[in-house]
Amino acid sequence: MTSHHQTTSATGSFLSSPAGLASWVGASDHKRIGVLYLATSLLFLAVAVLLGLALRLEVATASGGMFSAEGFREVLSLRTSLLVFLVATPALVGGLGNMVLPQMIGAQGVKFPGLNRLSYYAYLVGGVLLVADGGVRGGDLSAGVVGASLAGFSGFLLGVNFLATLHLMRAPGVCWTRVPMFAWSIYAVSVLNVLLAPLLGLATALAVAVHLWTGSEAPLLGVGPVLVDHVGWFQGGAALYVLAIPVVGIVSDVVAVHARRRLAGYHALAFCCLTMAMLGSLSWSQSVIVGGASVQALAARSFVTFLLVVPALVMIGALVATLHRSSIRLSTPMWYALACLIMLTAGVLVGLFPATLAVGVHLGATAFGRAFESYMLMGGVVLALFAGLYHWWPQLTGRLYDDKAGHWGCLLLFVGFSVAFFSDLVMGSQGMPAGVSGFGSASPEMADLFLNGALVAVSGACLAAAGFFLALATLVRSMLSGATAEANPWNGESLEWRTASPPPTENFVEVPVCEHGPYEFEELEDLQRGAAS
Predict the structure, then answer these.
(1) What is the largest CA-CA distance in the chain?
(2) Interhelix angle 444-481/403-429, nearest 10 degrees
(3) CA–centroid distance for 362 within its chain
(4) Distance CA 271, CA 184 (A)
């Protein structure tokens, strides 16, 4: 096996040159834009974690002391908007994608640096508007809706840039069958963003036009409110399943490198990424079907959701097959990847129940439906984000982190998520309502049962919050006092490991030549073949 190691060198790295705040504000280096995306999305995520903890405490105390009924719904709307519009895709695609995608394909940068910078500022302004207005609320044309639209426009700009980069800037030898799976996942999500963002922009423009023309959203037979609802769901309706695409892309690269095993079903994984993106572009409408919809409309919603589950399960099965008889190295990134794989599997399987017509109507408005969203948005996205950060951190920053602290952070996150979400599943199956601070018209016996379940859930949420801040603090501490890292501490074979650590502004001193696929760990495979013979 040919090993591609580079010496660690901070000279001329993207972190140190050029220096000063102005160089970051006007940055054109994709890695710096990725840092800005990550820092901003992690800030929004921290706010969402604290809001979620406050909401669970309000339900568990059953006192109504922190929020009024209307205030509870507004905070819940803000938290959901943060996770869907400002955390999931911006962190995984805008953040990690910007930091590693061009290096994965041997490119010196992205195709349109100015467009990349514009996408971040559209995301930042949209995020500020959305937070200031308290989220996206159905039927209400507001700054929050405009903020969500700007977040969607940011995704559109990212999609155009990444598609052009992947098509036009691959290094010699990087054919489509030698592209890492994370790059494939970004390609699929970029296609989805390019397809849906124009619809999002059109819906927003029409809603604003109706508002300016009539002075309110109510006239014109309710056209205004319907358009506003579509604004949210053009961007977020397919998010829960489609977010599995970059999640699986990150987990695939982490599993392959830390298990030293070629990905099982590489071509099937790439095809499933594209399939989920195409199906996701059709599934937005399921979220605007209201009570009283026809049986045919509900059946179509269920059918599309079940179609989305098929490629998701295929991707999970391919990752499990990769782990079979491999040489697993239980590093911190692998801990997060395995925890994420479990959460993603649970989320996909749990999502089958709300998608089933016989029980979906009853479970959708309960804590069961909230648990499904939590498994995908929190369990999948947060664990995948930390898996990718811990995996590429030594190469991107040139610093090592404390493995023991990283393990504890993962353990707290996984146990906390499991306790909180499973409690929601159990209580939701018993009819515990979601989205309200009380238990409605439940009998005293059921109210006591729901209260006990809420107490268990809030204990899990506290553990998860502690794990999140510990995982974040471990990375920050490594930047301040971490030991110097090798450029390729995991012996990865994809091109991002061929550059210095931290990488220079141009990524590579000279354009690399790709001689084999990103998962050809020949040394281990030769050893396995020898043992089998």
Answers:
(1) 78
(2) 160
(3) 28
(4) 9
Closest C-alpha to 468, from 422, 398, 415, 423: 415
Q: What is the pLDDT of residues 281-293, one digit of tens each?
A: 666 544 444 444 5
Paired strand residues for 366: 433
Using CA atoms, how far apart are residues 85 and 147, in angstroms rounded to an integer? 9
- Token code pair at residue 105: 């394909």
What are the residues whose beta carbons fall under 8 Å from the beta carbon of 74, sequence distance 6 or more?
Answer: 134, 135, 137
Specify whether the CB–CB gap between 175 and 266 falls below 8 A. no
Read off the pLDDT of residues 404-441 as tens digits, 9 standing for 90 and up. 999 999 999 999 999 999 999 998 888 888 877 777 66
On whether the CB atoms of residues 414 and 338 are closer than 8 A, the answer is no
Q: pLDDT tens for residues 232-272?
A: 554 444 556 678 889 999 999 999 999 988 899 899 999 99
Dihedral-angle region of residue 322 (phi above 0 means left; psi in -120 to 50 means alpha; beta otherwise)? alpha
The rounded distance, in Å, linking the Cα atoms of 123 and 371 is: 28
Residue 497: C-alpha distances to residues 10, 100, 237, 487 (Å) = 15, 10, 36, 7
